[in-house]
Design brief:
homodimer, alpha/beta, 4-stranded mixed sheet, 12 helices, globular
């Protein structure tokens, strides 16, 4: 099996720690391995490093290679520009040697968290076997923990295998409103779409050719004239793998994943998976607190001192400090917008 | 008139901005002049720079001279060690040339704020005239604004001059409890003790000789053998001017001062005298806020970003950030204690 890790993201949810030059997947938010490295570690020993591919951007490729020295340097693919996930995955799969892309390919986001790596690998192996034996296109859906409105959902259909829980996916559902999300979760017939896909590479490219023919044309052009990559890539249709392909397929199967998954979508989400100290604070780096509890205190540089406060996120970097209530930490994007509007690129 | 500015303090109330090497009086908390410089400015043109004396510590003397280049360098006196205010004032007065110390001396703290400098100078001049004409020992008491329990009070007696409001001080009262403070303020017969004194230097030294004879003996020894300053100074009685002398005197007079005085005793006290922006925040330095109001945000170094919070103090320096509710900002001393206990001298 080949593993393709998508590591081109550039979100702002972990600002000020995450920056354009050092986005979330390159950060060690927990322990001393970055999320990218943890994604790689999670695959071991199931997928040897020589079968791991990473698709990222030119800005990040050197850091990716530094963080994953085991992965062959030429398997860290540098997108000339971001053209969304359909192009990224298509290009990466088409870049694999024929023997590799005729086998199973697992596509994995680089910036998610999984607490039960062993359970994850078991599911991945079951999915691999299902793809191998039945040539399915598969997604690993996440057992929903709450009526989350921030994720897409997979609507489940026919059970294909009672023992493993293999089921058909009837539909991809866009991010629902809260009422709909409650209904989804209560029904037991929905999983979160975690962006993990498995397929034979060759099957995937055939499906892509049927649904996004211009994309595959472009990929073949690139394969024929690799020195024209930047020029051709810039003209590839920019659409997501979900919207551009998966939602259009009749036959997708899924296995439910219940392994402590989190997409770590905010400082608050990070706080929820980390362990607090005896005062109820989660502290990273040099922190002094006085009658303060239930805070996430990240001193990436220098010292944080906090008195008598609860439920805050405080993140200090060498140039900045962010202070916000945990439950509003996703509004850091508004600060990032302000910085962008003010032309403060050095802080982005 | 000679003005003696006491600038040896080393408080922790403005940590992390204030440090042992850069205490409150040297900080520009408002505008770009430090509290020490503002104390000097406030005396102009009434007291020419050549009549200004500053008593400070060895650690701070160079910075004091840099901040007040107009004051003759030899009039910035360096205490070899802190021996409290009776010793500091006694030594400074005894160090003045005879002609100067036979005249009026005004003693002023270096770290207070006065918004109405013109009113302050008027009062100072009235006090000077009273000392000059009647050889009084005087203190300028502050019209109390609230039942403050953090200050000492002056209990007022006989009116000496109806027009100016010159009155006798019956007693110095220690910091009262809240009920007593309320009674004091309601009675209209109490002023805050702001630590501002005026007297003839020679009169002061005579009174000091009567009440603290060992102190004056030491001062005479120092005058005779200045090269033994450190050794003799270390044996001077360490007591405050209030406790060691003023509270024991029968005849002290006062004039009430109503000129926007604040001792700036905490970040909160500073916030109360500064003007907020349209969002209700007081911002210094590079600050970005999103739906946050009523905060004091001081970016001495780098950037502060705050989302959705109210009533906080956030102070970012090159090595530290403090986050506290405004009304608990005085508890910064607990953080300083923790740092001291942890041997983190570089942050003190």
């Amino acid at each position: 099996m080949q593993a393709l890790i998508l590591a081109g993201g550039s979100g702002t949810r972990f600002w000020p720690l995450s920056r354009r030059q050092r986005p979330k997947q390159l950060l060690a938010l927990e322990g001393d391995r970055s999320l990218l490295q943890q994604t790689f570690d999670r695959l071991q020993p199931q997928v040897p490093a020589t079968s791991v591919w990473v698709c990222t951007t030119r800005l990040l490729a050197d850091q990716v290679r530094q963080q994953l020295p085991e992965v062959p340097a030429e398997q860290v693919l540098e997108e000339p520009e971001g053209r969304n996930t359909a192009a990224a995955i298509g290009w990466a799969v088409r870049s694999m040697p024929r023997a590799a892309r005729n086998g199973v390919v697992a596509v994995l986001p680089a910036d998610h968290r999984v607490s039960d790596a062993e359970g994850f690998r078991q599911r991945l192996q079951q999915a691999e076997e299902a793809v191998e034996s039945q040539d399915l296109v598969m997604t690993l859906g996440i057992e929903p923990q709450r009526p989350e409105t921030g994720y897409g959902y997979l609507e489940l259909g026919e059970v294909l295998d009672q023992q493993s829980g293999l089921r058909k996916v009837v539909r991809f559902r866009e991010k629902p409103d809260l009422e709909t999300a409650r209904r989804f979760v209560d029904s037991g017939r929905f999983l979160w779409n975690g962006g993990i896909f498995l397929f034979r590479g060759s099957t995937f490219l055939s499906l892509l050719a049927a649904h996004l023919p211009k994309l595959v044309e472009g990929l073949e052009e690139i394969a024929a004239e690799p020195n024209r990559l930047a020029e051709i890539y810039s003209r590839l249709p920019a659409t997501s793998i979900d919207f551009g392909l998966m939602e259009k397929l009749e036959d997708i199967a899924t296995l439910p994943l219940d392994c402590g998954w989190s997409d770590l979508g905010s400082w608050q989400a990070l706080a929820e998976v980390l362990t607090a100290d005896s005062q109820g604070n989660i502290c990273r780096g040099d922190v002094f607190s006085e009658q303060a509890s239930d805070n996430l205190l990240v001193a990436d540089s220098g010292t944080i001192a906090i008195v008598g406060l609860e439920g805050l996120v405080v993140v200090r970097t060498g140039d900045t400090v962010l202070v916000a209530p945990k439950e509003r930490s996703q509004e850091v994007r508004e600060i990032v917008s302000q910085l962008r509007a003010a032309g403060r690129n050095e802080l982005l």
